[in-house]
Amino acid sequence: MFGSLLTSNFPFSANRWISALERYYDKIVALEGQGDNNNYNGYHFQQPPAPNGLGIGNKNMLKLAQRMMKHYARNVMNNKDDPRMVLPATSGDIYVRRGNNILDATGLSLGVALTISTSLYLPVPHDRLFNFLRSGSNRNLWDILSIDSNIRDDVNIYSSRDPANSISLLIVESPARDKNVVEATKIYLQESYTDSVAMYVVYAPVDMDSVCYLLDNGKDGVDHVKIMPSGFAILPDVAVVIDGTSSGSHYLQPTQQENVVPSGGSILTISFQILDEKISSVDYLPPESVLIVRGLVCKTISLIKDALLK
């Protein structure tokens, strides 16, 4: 699946470093432009402006998003000292890695963190797939926990260079027992961005109390917010063209010229991190947890395909 991509020079260049620097600079510019704005689509937070014009709440969201991205990158990297279990599936192998035992404030075990990942090919342009997955209004089409719910985009911090690069809070609203009342049942922190190689949509559930504290006036609470990120990495499926002829794995001759061109499809890598409360040890994965993991991934893939291919 990744053969043509890896045998080209497409993923390996300093362009990714430059993209990371541009993305960080764009966030600073966006924050300076927003200043002390504290009215977020109907949710009002008393956000004191900092002396340089950056709202404390926005700065906290930026810090929390950076922490989320670091956790995500660490989770998806393979580690020889932390091997993965392979679960065969119709769409491709599903890899499961047992993480740390998560403890509550009193030291009691809440369960074990599981990181689940798989990759698949989709005959959909990568930019279309990216826009579909990053849009809050589409989340109820692929997220099992958000089906039949209304999704609102709040607290948006956009890049000054590219509005597709953004940090936002997604509010999942479900009807309460009183049909005239709408309740916020879940909140996701989400960052979506692109670089010279791929497109990413990374998100993590956060609780309402933490969000209100950070957006109102919390100065030292970012590191104490529990964060378990999941997300998507979207690569364009590319064809390596040598002297006008498409090729797979290859060695260039001195007189040959190489070009990397999109084939029109995408390679989607899905990574979920979940907390399994039934597991008390990182050394054992019970059969019922295996079934839950496989079902979560397969159902998500099916929903994405139904939304984009039918």
TrEMBL record:
Matches recorded under InterPro entries: HD-Zip_IV (IPR042160), HD-Zip_IV_C (IPR057993)
Signal peptide extent: none
Protein name, as recorded: HD-Zip IV C-terminal domain-containing protein
Highest taxon of source: Eukaryota
PANTHER family: HOMEOBOX-LEUCINE ZIPPER PROTEIN MERISTEM L1, HOMEOBOX-LEUCINE ZIPPER PROTEIN PROTODERMAL FACTOR 2-LIKE
HD-Zip IV C-terminal domain ranges (all copies): 57-308
Listed Pfam families: PDF2_C
